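Weekly sync notes, structure subgroup
Attendees: PM, AL, DS (notes)

Item 1: joint prediction request from the bench team. They want all two components modeled as one assembly rather than separately. Inputs as received:
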Amino acid sequence: MAKKSLIAILLSCLLFSACRPVSSSYKRENVEAILKNICQKEFSINEIIVKEIKDTFWIYLPLKKFVVAKGKLDPEAKNKISHIFLALRRTILSMQNPPKFYAFAISDITYGYDYIEIGYVDDLRKLEMFYISRNQLLERTVRIIRWDENAKGDLQAAHLKMFDIDFPDFLSLLIAQKIRENLSQGRLASYYILVSSQGKFNPDTKTIEIQYSAFKKNEAEKAPSSFQEALKIAYYFIVKAYDFGGFNYIEIKNNYSGKSRYLSRKAFWELRLD
Amino acid sequence: MTKKQIKIFIKLYWIRILIILAAFLFLAAVGILLVVGLRNFFTLESFYKKMTLASIPLQLFISIFYTLMFVTFIHLFNVWFYAGGGMAKMGQKKIKSTKVNVKWEDVIGMESVKREVLEVIKLIKDRSQLKEVGGKIIKGVLMIGPPGCGKTYLAKAIATETGLPFLASVGSEFQGIFVGLGSSRIRSLFKQARNLAEIYGGCIIFMDEIDTIARPRVGVSGFGAGMDYNATVNQLLTELDGLKQSESNIVVIAATNVSENELDEALMRPGRFDRKIYVGKPPLEDRKKLFEYYLKKTRYDKSINLEVLAKRTVGFSAADIANMVREASMVTIRNNRQVITMKDLSESYDRVVFGLKSEIVLSEKEKRWTAYHEAGHAIIAYITHPTDDVIKASIIPRKGALGYVGHRPSEEIHTYTREWFLANIKTALGSYVAEKLKFGTTSSGVDEDFTQALSLAYDMVWRFGMGDSGIVGNFGRLTHKQNPWAINISDKTKEKLDEDVQKILNQCLKEVEEILTRERELLEYFAQKLLEKGELEYDEIIEIFNQYGKEKPHRNTP
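Output from the run, pasted for the record:
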């Protein structure tokens, strides 16, 4: 009887001990130092710059060698990037009151080349919990690639204009990026020539404005509608991926053909472009 | 401890030491892993800690779910294996009492037997009364009787009535090529019964033809022959009432055609087969009820006299009556009739008793021969037999015989007098004398007749002390090699007994010769009638004998 009681007590202690809440490992105020510390101690990376702009976390990594050939990254650079990204994930997710967005900027300070990845922190959380795959995370990341002379020799991220990102902005950029990818590299690339694609959010009218410029390679050829494709992409991100309702209108316009649609949120949701 | 002591200790307990060592290493490894794991866990960032902790309830739920599923599966498998028969090697099937479906009302007649059996059923169903009195449960019931009298049927009715699982087996199932197979099968049968008794509150084991494994144990020869048989019997004895006694509500019902004396004594003692129930052939009243029962299931002519049917079928078992009604329905269909008539029943009676008509085609000469042969039987049977009526004479080949004469007692006989034996011997010899008288020679057709006559004469003298020499005793049984009480009798006595047999045969032969010589005209007439009609029924036979002023002989009533 005594033995049974003892076992029951021990088990209860074990069970109830797990009820204590787990406190965050890092405080937001110290995150810059912590991230630098992790990179230094664990990966021997000393050159990163960390800055917090409201709800967006910027990490800047200047590299002497970044891209060695077309599509190929320097192996050392690749290593550093993956380590920093890992440290970033660990820190942001275990942070008290984490930011909403992160921006990871890598500059080739030899040739003046910027590569910026802007992501949504919630997507990182989903990735860790296997709710979305790596490919899906890549789809949900805004990538900005540009040449910038001012990047040459910039170890302090002075040439970068760091900004705070809003979700509607992020979504607009994502939609525009996906339209660009599909029309220039994807399945519609064989039918269309894409001139430009941009997206922004008008905070006054709360309108997501997506504008692209694309025309058919061969007018006579029967091709899938680029406009319909753009609508589908917008529907996917707004409704299926993020279930976002913080807008009043959405405007999609093909500047080349002039075709556009201006839909209210309700009308857009009712499109059901599954 | 000295070195030597340590060595001996290790030699004796090395397996245990190894097991303890392995267990210790395993626990140590688990402990280390636990410590390392926990330490690493505490160094994790909060997000990963939360993830790990959040997955614990789900993992716990999944492991409990799989454990429950596994346990349920094992439990169901055990229930199926033991209760459902599973991969039983014997092939004996557990029969659900609902599937047996032989109700108590379906058992016709056998009132005294049913009374005894009902008592057994009551005790199986409710042992509380018995326990109050302090009595012990009946372990075994042995049903003895000739084949077809309803032993198996009764057992099925018991199963339905008690509502308990019914394990049916046949004695021959316990025999096999390999030594030990029989006892192993007995063990597995009883094990299954015990498990079923636990689940259902009781179980009935029915062993048909138990004489296959219940005869007395044999002596073991130099090469071990007989050991397996003895082992099977011993196992049965142990299971019924052996050392490991336990109050499981298992009743063994066994059936056999052989006498109780031919079975192993140890099995027959109280505590094993406590009840011995004799299930004999149905008497007149029961036969009437049986005909009524089976005919009710068919469409039959209501004018059929069941009493006459019952009287005609003396010596019939319940199975014979069922067979007869079944055959009658087929005759009805064959003759394109809608209802079974008396004629159909007569025809089916002939089929059951005398067999199917044969394809043999007799020549005229052979027909004549057969007619006189059968006429000899019929006349002697009619004139001399104290109890039997001649019910049919035929020269239509059946069952391999070229002809036959059927005679049956009009009522049950339980004791056979000297006159009865003599009448049967004379009837058998009637054919021989008839052939000799008519054709001046005899044939091989008397083969079976002589066998019967000799067998009867032998029994009269060797078993029943009916010989003229006055020697009394049952020499037939006591000289049987298998009989443990076998005695040696002198050659002189054997000679005398054989002489008595021959005397009886010769006397009977003489009498038959006298009768048939005297009744030559009757013999000729009868044979002619047989040749004319092929078959003579009872009424026609009576008419022939009445024509010649022959009345039925006086019945030898004790």
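Discussion: Chain B touches chain A through nine residues (CB under 8 Å).
Action: AL to compare against the crosslinking data before next sync.
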